[in-house]
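Q: How would the structure tokens look for this protein?
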Amino acid sequence: MLDIRRLYMLKTVAARGSITAAAQSLSLSPGAVSQQLAALRHDMGVDLLRPDGRTVALTEAGRVLLEHADRILAAMEEAECAVAAVKGTVGATATLAALPSTVARIVAPALTALGSRHPQLAVTCLVSDQAQLRELALGTVDVVLGQRYHHLPETRPAGVEVSPLLYDPLLVVTAADGSGKRPVALRDLSTHHLVVPPPTTDCGQAVLHACQQAGFTPTTRYVTADIAAQLALARAGLATALVPRTAIDPATPGIRTAPIEDHPVLRLLFAATRRTETADPTNTAIIEALRAQRDRIAGED
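A: Here is the predicted structure in token form.
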């Protein structure tokens, strides 16, 4: 009989591209992973992986086995969700992956409220800009608070369910000058020195795309994905920033925020889970807490 753990290791190696990377994500030694994959190969009687430069790739037999492994692993999770739904109780542990820009105003308050409502639930929060949906598909996280900018096509791994939370526009942030929150034309920023995220990030690409739509290529004096740094540079009058609304504390002193009137830049914040026939009560509780905080933010803004 096939060992479920070995099937999961095969899936992880295929996704990570190497035994070393897979071992690191599984908190195992490369030798331990290699040993289990060798046992799986022995069980199947055929090579499942082949060298591919500095990485490894699935053989045809490995690809076929992985297709079945995906269905087996999904069926196991479905069974766990169905039993949890019958029990009707929130579990003891879960892992949430979230963007740095969502922590202060969404994640931290939501987890505080969740802890009061379900004190037995311990949520591990992984804060990163990178590959959250891939980690969700691999099973290393349970819920993702992610983003998609409006000009980009929607992409998601197979087996992932996405629930929209809110549209979050980028605001123009400058040093406070007493002029209020009148809308700003993006084209008027063509003479400004901007602080923008790296062009390799979704936000950086969205800003560049919007500026080009407005007829100019931005003059970037500062490049950082750190929103606290962006706000500090704007407050000092050194640069103009374009920052998501929910990433800005309304009480932040020394800055002026204004909406973009001609070429708005929107990101959709969403909650994502692995798709199952039966909703997992623990994941549902986390998403409900995120939605409740979203509603509170809407009331504040």
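The chain has nine helices and eleven strands.

Residues 60-87 form the longest helix (28 residues).

Upvote if useful.
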